[in-house]
Design a protein that fits this description.
Blueprint: H1 6-9, H2 11-26, H3 37-40, H4 45-50, E1 54-60, H5 68-71, E2 74-83, E3 87-91, H6 92-95, E4 100-104, E5 110-119, E6 124-129, E7 151-157, E8 163-178, E9 182-191, E10 201-203, E11 209-216, E12 221-225, H7 233-239, E13 252-257, E14 260-266, H8 271-275, E15 282-286, E16 289-290, H9 294-302, E17 310-316, E18 319-325
Antiparallel strand pairs: 1-2, 1-4, 2-3, 3-6, 4-5, 5-6, 7-8, 7-10, 8-9, 9-12, 10-11, 11-12, 13-14, 14-15, 15-16, 15-17, 17-18
Length: about 350
């Protein structure tokens, strides 16, 4: 959509419709009816190889933590053991700010676990189960050679302890821009839909881990390529976060417009809220540079420095205004590893 003419007058209705779309994506979807693997595709050998390493993760988050308002205080997702010592890879939103965490193993055991760290840029997190192991672990593969039409398998654990594996297909490899200050240059899009998708393992026909299933789209899932984890693995395990400079964070929920970025909401703990940015603002420029769309807005923001002054030129209530904000490092706001 282009930011001009009648579009400005239609902003209230547009914002309401887009906000409904945002909240629908933000809230965890209710589980779909149980899948019978035999009705989707023949379950490949890869599922049998990886299933012993797939776990369920039950997290409890204090109600006063920033992520509790949008992600809830009780979460359940999947993960996959990547080292016999009990190191587990999962999607970050399942375990963010968890005060207590349990790993439900495929053999029926439930063990205490703790969060080792997060990579907010990729959206992945690392957890470790107690007990010392050795635990069954999956082999790590590479997602770079994967393209549309590639046969894969999705393997996750449903709340209740059942490991479910489905044969699937990569339907696309493309960039992904999300409303919560998150963007992947290369994401894997896969089918079929899996009821335990958050943190499920995406494996190739040999059973090697090539990605972590993150989101449910309309009729497909988005998976984070394993290649994004491999370069930061040692740093996240050792210090809880990658060593690269963190991306500047505003604490906004934004949607793409042609020639602008629409602010759909702000986090009460983010610098955007403190600076007075609010839902309905349309960002036209960042530090004097035109904003082409949401992805361009992120790229321009991420070229700035943590704590530097960022000037946002916004359209608000029929007027052009300037909002000055100092981005922060989200690691200083969210509890990203267990004590």
């Amino acid at each position: 959509m282009r930011w001009s003419g009648p579009g400005r007058r239609a902003l209230p209705a547009l914002l309401a419709g887009l906000w409904l779309a945002v909240t629908a994506v933000a809230a965890p979807r209710a589980p779909d009816p149980r899948f019978d693997p035999g009705t989707a595709q023949e379950v490949p050998t890869a599922v049998r190889r990886v299933s012993p390493a797939v776990v369920g993760l039950r997290a409890r988050i204090p109600a006063d933590r920033p992520s509790a308002a949008t992600l809830g205080t009780e979460r359940f997702g999947s993960g996959v053991i990547i080292d016999p010592d009990g190191t587990i890879l999962t999607v970050g939103y399942v375990v963010l700010e968890a005060a207590t965490l349990e790993a439900v193993l495929a053999d029926g055991r439930t063990l205490p676990a703790r969060v080792l760290g997060h990579d907010f840029e990729s959206g992945l997190a690392v957890v470790r189960a107690a007990g010392g192991g050795p635990f069954p672990a999956v082999a790590l593969g590479h997602a770079a050679p994967i393209g549309p039409g590639q046969s894969v398998a999705l393997v996750g654990m449903e709340d209740g302890g059942r490991v479910l594996g489905l044969g699937g297909t990569v339907t696309g490899v493309r960039p992904f821009v999300a409303y919560w200050e998150y963007m992947l240059d290369r994401a894997l899009v896969v089918t079929p839909l899996h009821p335990a998708f958050g943190g499920a393992a995406l494996v190739d026909p040999d059973g090697a881990l090539i990605g972590i299933v993150s989101l449910r789209l309309d009729r497909e899932h988005l998976a984070i390529p394993i290649d994004l984890f491999l370069p930061v693995r040692d740093a996240v395990l050792a210090q809880g976060r990658p060593t690269r400079p963190p991306r500047p964070w505003l604490g906004v929920r934004a949607l793409s417009m042609d020639g602008a970025a629409l602010i759909a909401g702000v986090s009460p703990v983010g610098p955007a809220h403190a600076a007075g940015l609010r839902a309905g603002d349309v960002v036209l420029r960042l530090n004097g540079e035109r904003v082409a769309d949401l992805g361009d807005f992120y790229r321009k923001l991420w070229r700035t420095a943590i704590g530097s002054v960022v000037e946002l030129t916004v359209h608000r209530g029929g007027q052009i205004e300037t909002v000055t904000v100092r981005p922060r490092d989200r690691h200083t706001i969210f509890q990203f590893r267990s004590p």
